[in-house]
Description:
The chain contains 16 helices and 5 strands. The protein has a 5-stranded mixed sheet with strand order 1-2-3-4-5. The chain is elongated, with a radius of gyration of 24 Å. By secondary structure, it is α/β, with parallel strands linked by helices. It is 51% helix and 11% strand. Helix 4 links the parallel strand 3 and strand 4.
Amino acid sequence: MSQDRIQTPHDRLVKQVFSDPHNAASQLQSLLPSSVVQALNLSTLSLQAGEFIDKQLRTKESDLLFAAQLKGQQNRQAFVYILWEHLSSHPKDRFFPLRLLTYMGRIWEQFIKQHPKAKHLPVIIPVVIYHGARRWQVCRNFASLFDPKTLGDMSHYVPDLTYELEDLQATQEHELRERAVLAHVKATLWFLKSARSDKQLLQHLQEWQKVLQTLLESPTGMDAFMTLMRYYMSVAQHPKLEEVQTQVAQVLGPQTQEGVMTLAERLIQEGIAKGKAEGIAKGKAEGITEGAIRALCTLFDARGWKLTKAQHRRIQACHDLSTLEQWLRKAAVVPSLRDVFRDVSK
């Protein structure tokens, strides 16, 4: 799946974590009915190419398609289609099952093109995972979109479709912690559920210590944890860097504090690089510094520092990239706002 279509922090986190078949299998094993799990050989789960959602909805949805062999049926497989709704508010489309059926039709069309001699279509198991701010209230059954009073003897013409739903806002944190899934999956679902509220997530770190420590002890644990922290710092409401570092270090150890600092510096450099790219695209020299200025202001806000009018004017008037980069590096480590501008020539 092309990375250039990833447009939001939600897309980035979902696809980094759940494109891994081991993580996807762990989640599906806990979400699908036991009879379906028994029918699938989840150890054969493999990610398939293709994106099936409408282009205009790609800032609100992500999708992943997997294939798995069926137990006891050689060379037969089923598709598991995972659709992520990552809305900050509840979806207003009451005809959502129709949209889902449209996506499934596209998967079958792709299958026919790739297997022109096939005699049967593979089963598609649709899974919707939602982490909006309110509980999911859209109907789960396609047939319920029709008025039963008007159907009568025509009901057998109506397709019957249901989908599995993971509504994270309807799930309590202790239920997530107790699930028999990989620590990486547990932690990811928790961040998706709670990261937008920085206070809620930080206040509950202690309760999640065991899960996060298990994740950190895995071979790629620190990278996985930093991916979660990157998501948190991208979507939380004004997280303060010092508070994040302190609480993370207290619960998970000093090595995580160093990782958060490294992550902050990486985000700063990405902001600078984005500014350079925008400047080149615009064909204007001043565009090169725009990203650095935005990154600097964001970092000040993250550390809870309020600029004076003079400091704000000084930053906005600076067009020297080396000076801005020096301010950025210092802002990530110095104890006060005053120290950022100390010994830097005007």
